[in-house]
Amino acid sequence: MKTNEIIFRGLPFQPKPNQVFFIENGYDQEINEYIQNFQGYLTSLFESKGLKFYYLPSLVTEEGVEEKVRYYAPYLTSEELTTPVRSDALTDFILDSETRKNLPPSFIFGGLPVGYEEDYRFLQVPLFEVNFNAPYSFFMELKKLTMERMEAAEKERLDDRVLCSPSASPDIYLDSDEVDSCTMQMPQFKKIGREEAPEKTEEQLEEERSLIDTQKVLEQLRRTVQKLRLDGVSLMAIHEFIDKQEPLSRMVITPDYRIFLPDYHNMEIEMGALPKAIYFLFLRYPEGIVYKHMQDYFTELLNIYKQLRPNTDEARLHVTITKVVNPLGNALNENLARIRKAFVEKFDEHLACHYIVSGERGSQYLIPLDRELITWEE
To answer: What pTM does this model have?
Structure first.
């Protein structure tokens, strides 16, 4: 089987060696009709050899992709979501112009990174080399070549581990793509013997419960994001639609304190009364609030919380807000995690980061959203 190497630059996803793509320059109607008619057959053949086949025009229609696309780009219209990805969309990223110009309809596979640039090297098999009436030998050879590429990729990854951390053990190594961006570093409790353990105060116990609750919130968020996040080549499903300046939605807060994003299909952001009170406080201060100065906002936050919980005993409200503004406690962080969860459950963090409260302990916390986009209805 004749293969060539093609280098791609700036792909909007990170390919894996076991992924196979159909690619062409232009549009060959006969070949595209063949793939469309026999896509299930081709997909099963590739799967039987441990390979994943992608036909770009079908990406949007694959099961579950629309939900993920809407999560990543909540501003897209229904009409935009029915627009298929071009069959030659990957051709735009071929580094060499002559290769790009003269590319016949082909399969490309075994993508591996090249150096430290955003380049990937693929093997290319022109479709006129493939006998689909007797596919066994072709797919077996394709599998063999792909396994070689995967082994090379794994070797390179292991070599990088040794270079980056000579003392690191492969048994405990964690790949970067396994670390979720929404994960927070939480304080670790030191384990000590029962006879050494001092008796904890009610305040310390409350603090530990708050830390555990924060971890639970973040774990729930991690599972949601894993389910909704676009993986790898699925980003191609929206690459054609996304403008480089993605639109931020206006925010409307109704008289009964509901939060809507009208430009994201009138999406409602739902959260409990306490995190919502904290959120409204931060909306009032575009310049941000210093964490250790939260006590200065006690009365203002209490009054906001009263409006959201009008039938709650005032003494109880007072105790709750006291915990939130305590700079030594974790109640504020717990509720900031709940605010983050309310947005990131609805759409991807590359947009949600404009709406959530962000900052580092010891510095200012703020909501980056332009206040001209916010309307408080009366």
So the answer is: 0.62
